[in-house]
Amino acid sequence: MSTLTTTTRRKPWTPGRVLFWLTLIVLTVIFVAPLLWMVSTSFKTNEDATALPLSWLPRPFTTDAYKTVLTASSATPVLRWFLNSLLVAVANSVLVVTVDALAAYALARLRFRGQKFAFGTVVATLFVPPFVFLIPNFLIVSKLGWLDSLWALIIPSAGGAFGVFFLRQFFSSLPVDLEEAALIEGANQWQIFTRIVLPLARPALATLTVLSFLTNWNDFLWPVYVLFSAEHQTLPAGLSTLQSSATTNYPLAMAGAVVASVPVLILFVAAQRHVIQSVTHSGLKG
Amino acid sequence: MTVQAPPVRPESRSDAGVPGNSRTIPRHGRLTPYLFLAPFAVLFIGFVLVPAIFGLWVSLHDYNYLLPGQPWVGLQNYLDLFTPGSRDSGDFWHSMLATGIFTVLSVPFLIVCPLGVALLLNRAFRGRSFFRAVFFAPYVLGVSVVGLLFRFLLDPNIGLVNSYLGHAIPWTTDVPWAWVSLVAMTVWWTLGFNAIIYLAGLQEISPELYEAAEVDGASRWDQFRNVTLPGLRPVVAFVTTVTLLASANMFGQAFLVTKGAPANETRTAIMYIASTGLGSNRQGMAAAMSYILAIILIGISALNLRLSRRREAS
After folding, report:
1. pTM score, two decimals?
2. Which of A62, A104, A146, A147 has CB 3.0 to 4.6 Å from A152, enough for a Cys bridge?
3. Does A173 share its domain with A116?
4. Residue A42 sits in which domain range?
C-alpha cells in the first residue's frame, strides 16, 4: 500500500500519462482477446460454441475437444502431428546450426581459394525470393523419394544461406587473439573451432537455433503440398484440414490451435531475448 | 546480459590480414576449409543452387512430374502468360492483381502501426518488456494458428466480431470485406515483428539530440519530426522493403481464411503458382510464373532501395 502511494506521488497522473496507459490497455485487449477466445472455445461443446448469444465462459466446461484431438485413433491425430512437428523442428534446427557453424567458420577464419566467390554466392541467394525454389525443390524431393515423408521438411530448408551469413558475421567479430595463442600452442583448427570459437559464439548459436525452430514449426505452404497422408502431417498442415470441411467443429479446431501454440509460446517466453535478438539481427542485415 | 551479440560488422579480422609473424605458423592444411564447408555445400548446392537453375529448365518444358515425357516448349510458357486469352494468362494476372491489391492495402498499415507501438514501448515505464512480449506473441504462432483463429472470429454467423457489431458482415466471402479481414489479421499477426525492428532503431538515436531539441523549446511533435523520423530513415527503408516482400509473398492468410473467395478475387499469386504447379501438376507453367513474379519483386525492391538511398543523400 505504501509503495503504491509513493509511486503515485512520484509520477502524477497527467492527461498524457492517462492517455498513454489507456492506449496500451486497449492495444493489449486487442492482442490478448483473440487468444483468450481460442482457449475458451477449446473447452466448449460444439453446440455451446455456435449458440447465440456467444459466451466468454464455456457452459458446460468440457475437455472433450482435447480428448478427441489427442486420441491417436481419431481422424484428426493432433498428437501425432505434434510429435511430427517436434521431430522435424528439432532435427532441422540441429542440422542447420551444425552445418552452418562449420561453413561459417571456414568463411570467417580459414583461407582457401574461391573464398570471396563462395561467400558472395551465399549472400546473393539471400536476395532470391523463396518461392522460386518451390517448384524445382518439389521435383527434387520427389526424385529423392521424400514426398509424403518428414525428410522433405528436415533436409531441404537446411540449404538456406541465412544462418551461414549470420554466424559468419558473428565469428568475424570475435577477437582473434585467443585463436592465435592456441595456434602457437599447437592446437589444430578443429580444436580451435570446438573449444574456443563455439563456446564464445553460444549466444549467436542459441539465437539461430530458436529462429530455425520457430521457422520450421510454423512453416505452412511447403508441408501442405509435400505431405499427403493424415499421419504424416505436421501441425500447421494438419490444422488446415480441421477447417476445410463445411461443418467445422470449432472447439476441435481451437483445441488443435492451442496445442500448436503452447510450445512456441513457452519457447518464446523462455528464450525471449534470443527471439527478439534474431528479429533485430534480421533488421541489421539490411 | 554479457552475451549481447555485436552488430554485424562489414570488415572481418581475418580478411583484414593476420599479423606478419603468424603467417610463419602453418594455420591449417589445404583441405581443412573444404572439409568444414562440405556439409553445408552439399545442402546449399542441392537445394538452392541446383533448384534455381533447374527451375529455369523446368519452365522451358511442358512439365508434369507424373507423366513419362516432359516435352520441350522453349519460351512458350512465358509467351502464353503474356498472351491475353490463353489458358493461364487471365487467372495468373488476376492473381497478380490480388497480390498487388493486398500489398498496396497492407504495407501502409504495416509500416505505420508498428511505428506507433514502438514509440509507445520506447518510453520508460513499468512492465515494458511484458507489453513488448504481448505485442510480439502473435508472430511466433505462425499463420496456420492465426488463420484458423481469424476464420472463426470472422465467421459471418457465429463469429465474435459480428456478434459485437450486430451485423452479419461477410468478412470472408465478399469484397471489400475480405480485403479488410486479410489486412487486419496480417497487422495483428506481424505488427510485433516490425515494432521490434523500429524499437532497436529508436534506441540507436542519441538521447543528446532530444535534449538539445528540448533546450531549443521543441514540442513533442517537433522532436518526432526533426529528430525521430530522420534518425529512423534507414530503418524505415529496411522495414518497407521487408514488408513489401512479405506482403507480395502472402499465401497462408488467404488460403485459410478466404480460400480465394469471392470467385478468386483474393487468390494471390503464390496461391495460384502453388495450385498450378503442385495441385494440378503443371510444374513448367508454375515455374515460369514464379520467375516472372520474382523478376518483378527484385525490380521493385531495387527501385525502393534506390529511392531511399537518393532520399538519404539529399
Report:
1. 0.89
2. A146
3. yes
4. 2-69
